[in-house]
Each structure stands twice: as structure tokens, then as C-alpha cells.
């Protein structure tokens, strides 16, 4: 992507402002920032872990290229490679392979059958790299009301080499109408981009390229945005944590309290979540996209014939007619501008309605869940009422047994025992006679409901 020169811009304007009362300006987008954003490795590396502390990386790469060409007839195109010992044991090392284009990435990701050895060294691939934007597309205007699982299954059935289907979320973590689709084949993805649409469940959806966020160039000396360390004009170092200047950051006694150099927030000065860095990224993205469009339009115009004899210029219109009414061009342009504003307002209203529909769906889900919970509570109450009724019935039966069976039997038994306790007109057991009289009186009082236990 070509860079756009910035006129009358000095590097001194890009140094960070250490005055906390002044906001840091990111209005100047430098050529260095544009080159940094467009010349980083565009594809994540493939990481091969070898069971050796040191390998011949050049010979290993040549062996991989020859293996791909001989066994798969594929010319593997690489942009670089390097070894690394990060996250490795003593007798291990990693080989990072950077591909040049999406076809080479697709080949290493899904098409190749990796050999057991490269240059007589065994290796493993612990983790596949993430899918780059060059193998992804976005589908717009996907309704909230569709069954997303059915949508995904239909998409996988209609199109080959689909890896992931993700509905993107906004900053508030609400679903949007944009769906990201990742492919393992560059050919499939390029064909879909060329068609400009996908048919899913008999509905045509517009398809666009997926554009990721650009990388931001931040100086490691002053933590200013838009220039390299070797171009920095600041003499002292700057601590990325507390934003204080010091002659040597390695000997700096940092307070440990995070304070951003750009916005004064409680985060590091190189944090990508900083609002100033975010604004710089947005401005840089706009310039890169506009420069790309200008380059495309210029190239297209340069290929057009410009002979005035074959293509004479049209006369400049002075008036225009709308439905038979002659209107000056200026007024017509004003009407078209207002129509554009109305269309933009309608689009904003549609987006707002979409958000309201989504929130309404959340409310409806909450109401349905509450109704289910209330139904469960009511069922529990009815179950308790039924249990109480059964308990009352059992208690009534037991009361009848006591009143009509046990108490009369006890009365008869007491009467019989009282008769047996008398002999020749005298009580054999005076205590029993006394207690028996008390028991009979209590039974009589209970039956007459004058005594309660």
C-alpha cells in the first residue's frame, strides 16, 4: 500500500508532551508510521518445534521448499524465517516460518502433509497459527432473528473450506449484523470476494473484505507515536509506567503507579487501549484506505484513453430538468445533498431500530424466563397444598380411630381393671384405684373436648 507524504511535518511535532495539562496531538501521520503499518509480516508465522538445541535453519527451509515442490508440485513462497528459543526447553528450539501470500499460507495450513523430519531433525507443530484477514470475509446485514446455528450449517454446506463463522460484537458486547467467515483456502475466499455475495438459506448477502486494525509505531525511548527510536530527538528515556523522564530507564526508580504519557490515564504509555493511540490508529487507517483508493483510481484513469479527438469533453450544464421543471444546478445539488442526508438518517434509524430489536429480544427472553420460574413456583405451591390435604385426611382418620376405637377400648379396660382391683368390698391396690380414677376422668374430659394435650 503506497504511503502518502506529509508536507511541512517535522519529527519534533511528534514527540510526546510531558505536560499533563496539555493533550497529546496525533494529527500528524508520518511516513514512518505508514511504512510500519504496511510492511509488517502480513501473515502469522508457522512455528515448528525441533527436538534439538540448534538447527541449520537455512538448510531446513530449503528442505521444506523442495519437499513441497516434489511431493505436492507447489512452489512455496516465503518472505522470511528465523529461529527462537522462547518457551523452549534446553534441547529444543523453534523455527518461525513467514509466508509471502495467502496461497502459501493455505498450503501450509491445510494442504500439506508434513514430513516426520526436515533436514534429518524431528519436529512438531504445537499450535496452528490464527487465520489472517487475507483468508476472511465479512457478511453484512445478517438479521438478529435468524437461527445462527442453522445459518452456519447452511453456509458450511454451500461453501467449502469454511473454518469459523463468527457474529461480531460491538464495544458494548452486543451482537451486530456483521458475520465474519474464515476459510482455509485462498481460492475459495477470492472467488467469494469476486462474486461479492453469498447465498445462504435462499437469501443473498453482500460480502466484503475483512480489514483488520493497523499496527501502530511507538518509540521505545520517549513512547511518542509515529517515529522509531533511532529518529527520536529526546535526550532522556521515558518510563512507560509512570511517564517520568530519566537518563537511564534501567536505573530508574519507578513508583509503579501507571500514568499514560498521552492522556494521563491509569495505564501504560504504550497501551493500545489509550484513547489517543486509538485516535491515531483511526486517522492512520483513514489515510491508508484513502491512499489505496486514490492509487486504484489513478491507475484506472491512466489506462483510459484521453484523446480529445476521440472523446471530446461534454459541455458544462447550466440547468437541469426534474419532472419538467427547470432547476438551476446549484439548487439541484442542494436537493441531492439533502436526499443524501435523509438516506444517512434512515440508515442511522435502521441501526437504532436494530439495536432496539436486540434489546427487546433480551427483555422478551427475561420475561419468558420469569414466566417459567413463576410457573415452577406455582407448581410447587400446588404440590404443597396437595400434600397438606393428604396430611389432613390422614390426621382425620387417625383421630377417628382414637375417638371411636382406642378411647372406648381404654375405658372398658379401665372399668375391668377397677372391678378386678376390688375384692370383698376392698381395693387391693389403693394407688392404682386412685390413678385409675384420674385416668378415667381425663378420658371422659378428652371425649367431651374439655381436655387438650
From TrEMBL:
Residues 1-25 are annotated as: Disordered. Residues 1-16 have a biased composition (Polar residues). It comes from the Eukaryota. This is CCHC-type domain-containing protein. It comes from Rotaria sordida.
